[in-house]
Write a structure and sequence with these properties.
The protein is an alpha/beta fold. The chain has a single domain, classed as Metallo-beta-lactamase, Chain A (4-Layer Sandwich). The protein contains six helices and 14 strands. Strand 2 and strand 3 form a beta hairpin. The longest helix has 11 residues. The structure holds nickel (II) ion and manganese (II) ion (MN). Nickel (II) ion binds next to loops. The site of manganese (II) ion has 7 residues, from helix 1.
Length: 229
C-alpha cells in the first residue's frame, strides 16, 4: 500500500492512505504559499511538531471542525485543549511512540525551540517517524538542525524523508544534504523553504546535489503537488 504525500506549502503536509488522512503542521490561512485554506482541509489525525505559529496556526481550527485527533507533545496537546477546546488529543514525548489506526508513530528528536504563540511552554520540539500499516516508513524531520543520530532513524529503512532546507531557522541545503547521507531514504522531499524571503532556496539545485552525491531520489514539489511514497 502506498500513500499520497501532498505539499501544502511551507512545512505543511497531507499524508493520505486508503483509509486515513493525516495533516502535519497545518499552517494555511496565513501562509503566503498554501494552496488551500483551513476550511478546505480535512484530517482524521493532525500532527504538530512544535509550538511555533508556522506549524500550529490552524491545528485547532481544523480539529474542531473535523473532530480530528491532534498528536503532539503533552504540553501542546494540553494547551490546545485548555485554550482552544480541542477534544481529541494524544500527547506524547521524545522517543515514545504509539500504535494508531494508520500505523505506528514515533516522536523523534528535533533540535529547535517550541514556545507557543502566547508565550506558553511548548515542551520539546519533535519530528515524526510514521510507519504506515503494510505501507511505507516516512520520516518528517520537521524544524531541526542537523544531528548525527538521524542515522538511527535511517536504520529502520526509510521509504521517504521530508527535510527542511530553508536555512536560518532550520537546516539549510548543505546540512540537509548531510542529513540525506545519514538517513539514506529512498526518496527525499524538501520542506520549510520559499515561504518568505529569508528562507528562499533553489530546491532544484539542491536536488541535483542529492542525485549526484547520494542514492536517494529527490522530489521537488510545488505547493499543491503530490508524490506517491
Ligand atoms: Ni519553528
Ligand atoms: Mn518553522
Amino acid at each position: 500500500m502506498s500513500a499520497q504525500l501532498t505539499w501544502l506549502g511551507h512545512a505543511s503536509w497531507q499524508l493520505k492512505t486508503t483509509q486515513h488522512t493525516l495533516l502535519i503542521d497545518p499552517f494555511l490561512d496565513d501562509s503566503p504559499t498554501a494552496p488551500i485554506k483551513s476550511r478546505d482541509a480535512y484530517a482524521d489525525f493532525i500532527l504538530v511538531s512544535h509550538g511555533h505559529f508556522d506549524h500550529i496556526a490552524d491545528a485547532a481550527k481544523i480539529a474542531n471542525r473535523t473532530g480530528a485527533t491532534v498528536i503532539s507533545n503533552y504540553e501542546i496537546t494540553t494547551w490546545l485543549t485548555k485554550n482552544h477546546g480541542v477534544k481529541n488529543t494524544l500527547g506524547g514525548n521524545l522517543g515514545g511512540g504509539a500504535n494508531l489506526p494508520f500505523g505506528r508513530l514515533k516522536f523523534t528528536l528535533a533540535f529547535h525551540s517550541s514556545a507557543l504563540p502566547d508565550g506558553s511552554n511548548g515542551g520539546n520540539p519533535c519530528g515524526f517517524l510514521i510507519s504506515l500499516t503494510g505501507g511505507p516508513k516516512i520520516y518528517f524531520a520537521c524544524d531541526t538542525a542537523l544531528f548525527s543520530d538521524m542515522a538511527l532513524t535511517g536504520a529502520v529503512g526509510l521509504d521517504a524523508a521530508v527535510l527542511p532546507i530553508g536555512d536560518l531557522f532550520t537546516m539549510g541545503p548543505e546540512d540537509a544534504l548531510e542529513a540525506v547521507k545519514l538517513l539514506k531514504p529512498k526518496k527525499v522531499i524538501p520542506s520549510h523553504y520559499n515561504t518568505w524571503p529569508p528562507i528562499t532556496q533553489d530546491a532544484n539545485k539542491w536536488a541535483e546535489r542529492v542525485r549526484a552525491e547520494t542514492k536517494a531520489e529527490p522530489i521537488v514539489l510545488a505547493p499543491g503537488e503530490a508524490v506517491s511514497v
